[in-house]
Structure prediction request, 377 residues.
Amino acid sequence: MSLKILKKNELTRDVAVVMGTRPGIIKMAPLVTELERRGIGHFIVHTGQHYSANMDFDFFGELGLPEPAFRVGTTRNYSRHGDQTAEMLRGVEQCLLERKPAVVLVCGDANTNLAAGLAARKLGIVVGHVESGLRSNDWSMPEEHNRVILDHICELLFAPTDNSKRNLSEDNVRGEVFVTGNTIVDSTLRYVQVARENPDRIGGLGLETGKFLLLTCHREENVDHRDRLLNIIEGIRLISEDLDREVIFPVHPRTVKRIDEFGVGEKLESVRGLRVIDPVPYTANLALIDGALVVLTDSGGIQEEACILHTPCVTLRDNTERPETIEVGANVIAGNSPVDMLAATREMLMREASWPVPFGDGRAAERIIDAVVPFVS
Prediction:
């Protein structure tokens, strides 16, 4: 039996925009807007990697996106990396065989993007990797595996910075590299204005700008290890007591699950000044970042958003694939040592929040679609 590879004359002139996680939806939204503005045929594929409404589906209406043309509804049945990636690969392949787009765009380092990139690559469809070339150089991270593999199978590589381009060159990738800036700037600059113009911009939490800290924590290397999670909780206790400031913690569903499994809920509840809340919509989250005194996070996207909004950031990891944030002085690596977390927070409070934004000028989507146009003309 021969394997199906689509011929060029079978393809339409459409672009498939693949999403599946909250950060991916945010970063791909400007591309959908730009495709619509130019009248280029396109459709959204949703892989279902994030399937909780408060983490995902509300975003489509909030960002003004059309509903996905195709959803992989069975991804939620799987929790292991291999199973989840395989299910998304099967589902996306089915969609691509039906719709036959000329280009598939993926963004970032989630399993969603590896699955969609592989599905398109096997069918002979051009793949573009938005946010390519990021490297943490930590091979224990599943996200690092996905980034590296994707960059080696994509024809179009959209590097957000010169540093990312350099990583791609050192990896000897085959695809064509474009330095475009990061679409996170496009989204952040657009939607933070919506947040700032909303009188209830921080979701009725009764917070005063510059008087609270924001915590996010969801990465596998942190929350899947009881000792690391306990260290972070202890670090937040030290910081809250030292600064005498409230810490707002929109808790990720993955983190909730681990807190329950590890039996550390009581420890979390004992931290004076820590307010645990449900995840909030995108514009409310931007308002929290914009209004925070300091952001403590293990999220790559929030490191970028904090940098763009000139809010000091402390990264609760041992490395970052966003070294530009460190270089400009917007971010510091603290790991998960409670003492180091406190020291890093104090350090960031001393810095002048006037760093340059290293991720572009908010026109990344235009440059990316410029590179896609020759394949759909």
